[in-house]
Amino acid sequence: MSKESQYGYNRYLDYLHLKASEALSLKVEAEEKVRKDENHKKAIEIATKMILAGFSDDTIAN
Predict the structure, then answer these.
(1) Cα dist from 46 to 6, 33, 37, 56, 62, whole Å
(2) CA distance 23 to 3
(3) How many Å apart are CA 14 and CA 9, to the nearest integer?
(4) What's the predicted TM-score (pTM) here?
(5) Rounded CA gap, 38 and 20, in Å?
(6) Alpha carbons 43 and 47: distance in angstroms, whole number
């Protein structure tokens, strides 16, 4: 392979590596958001059940 071809190939590999890294970062961020959303949903469900059971606002807040 010529030096020009090798240079172009290496640049292409670097580009692929960058895009793979970006994709992995987006995946991790999306998974974290889903976990936070699930935890938030669970907290709301628990607070709702506590309100219906007659707990005070102070108790629920803690």
Answers:
(1) 60, 20, 14, 13, 12
(2) 30
(3) 9
(4) 0.65
(5) 27
(6) 6
Q: What mean pLDDT is predicted for residues 14-18?
A: 98
Q: Would you state the pLDDT for residue 58?
A: 84
Task: Say whether 29 sits in a helix, a strand or coil.
Answer: helix
Q: Pick from 23, 45, 26: which is nearest to 34 by CA?
A: 26
Measured over the CA atoms of residue 5, residue 11, residue 13 and residue 16, the dihedral's sign is negative
Size of the chain in residues: 62
- Read off the tokens for 56: 């005070």
**pLDDT at residue number 52:** 92
3-state percent breakdown (helix, strand, coil) of the chain, nearest 5:
90, 0, 10
